[in-house]
Design goal:
The complex is a heterodimer of chains A (233) and B (88). Helices cover 68% and strands 6% of the residues of chain A. Chain A has 233 residues and is mainly alpha-helical. Chain B is rod-shaped. The chains are: A mainly alpha (233), B mainly alpha (88). Chains A and B meet through α6 and α7 of A and α3 of B.
Chain lengths: 233, 88
């Protein structure tokens, strides 16, 4: 295989911490770039909304569209509990979306590193278990023995598998897109590299990235709202 | 035949194993196709609920995709981060 096929994570700076050898990798740099873009957007949006006009124009329309569609998405799934989770889901939606499509801008997508997606999955896992214990109290533990007591190990594995499958799903999709694009760029002759891969970028980066972002946020909301009993009874 | 080194044998068998692991892609393909077909017929029966049907279908398809991605992860590990080479 040619040497110009390159999709791995590269270490940039090495340092020692508590006797461990640690690396600042391309993932860290790309996460920082994504975060700076989001923070810049947030500052611009904040300034714009503070000087909001009665009749919204270009940029204000765009901000209101984003906020309204994210709120609608959370409201559809979580119903009366939506108010508590709108901020978190909106934040994580924008972060994952920008991370997934950052392959378009020449970065290596941060979500193609298992460290990023596993931490996102563990945050979801923490939210699920926190809400489980907060709303169900003792039943959170007795539910593990629910249908029959000897099914406890299977129930426990089911709880632990949630963040792993969530994170592997996002990681696998984004990584497969990254690897496919790198292979295609490496194998194409030079005159085909211009223009032709754009169609594949639309599929692997835009389409798969948007779908996986939607699915991650959707599954997070579904798992969390499963643990919250409805107010009717 | 005596020129085959231990490393070469492991790499060759890993490549075959990676190919075999991607047979896992069959299952999600069938499952997602069934989900999409039922989604299409549901939209045909009740076009008003297109949004709900589409989001439910995507959610189900994403969950069905997980097993295929496990196979993909195994194939990637065998190809790019082979743990068996360290056992030599």
């Amino acid at each position: 295989m040619e040497n110009n096929v390159d999709f791995m994570i590269h270490g940039l700076v090495k340092f020692q911490l508590f006797g461990q050898e640690l690396w600042i990798t391309t993932t860290h740099v790309c996460v920082l770039i994504v975060m700076m873009a989001l923070i810049g957007f947030a500052i611009a949006a904040n300034y714009k909304i503070r000087h909001a006009k009665e009749v919204p124009d270009g940029f204000q329309n765009f901000i209101e569209l984003i906020v309204e569609s994210l709120d609608k998405m959370v409201n559809n799934i979580m119903g009366e509990n939506a108010a508590k989770f709108r901020n978190y889901i909106g934040t994580i939606f924008m972060f994952i979306l920008l991370s997934n499509i950052s392959g378009l801008f020449g970065l290596r997508p941060p979500t193609a590193d298992y460290g990023t997606t596993l931490s996102l999955g563990l945050i979801t896992f923490g939210m699920i278990q926190y809400n489980n214990i907060k709303y169900n109290k003792g039943r959170a533990f007795t539910d593990l023995f629910k249908p029959l007591p000897f099914l406890f190990p299977i129930n426990l594995i089911g709880e632990i598998a949630t963040p792993i499958s969530l994170s592997l799903r996002l990681f696998g999709n984004v990584l497969s897109g990254t690897v496919m694009m790198a292979l295609i760029y490496g194998l194409l002759p030079i005159f085909l590299k211009i223009g032709f891969p754009a169609a594949l970028h639309v599929y692997f980066d835009l389409f798969a990235g948007c779908i996986q972002t939607y699915v991650f946020c959707m599954l997070t909301m579904v798992f969390v709202s499963q643990k919250i009993p409805s107010e009717q009874n | 035949m005596s020129q085959i080194t231990n490393e070469g044998l492991i790499l060759a068998c890993s490549a075959i194993g990676a190919g075999l692991a991607m047979i896992a892609g069959v299952g999600p393909g069938i499952g997602q196709g069934i989900a999409a077909g039922h989604g299409a017929s549901a939209v045909g029966r009740n076009p008003g609920a297109k949004g709900d049907i589409t989001s439910t279908m995507l959610l189900g398809q994403a969950v069905a995709e997980t097993t295929g991605l496990y196979g993909l992860a195994i194939a990637f590990i065998l190809l790019f981060a082979n743990p068996l080479l360290g056992k030599l």
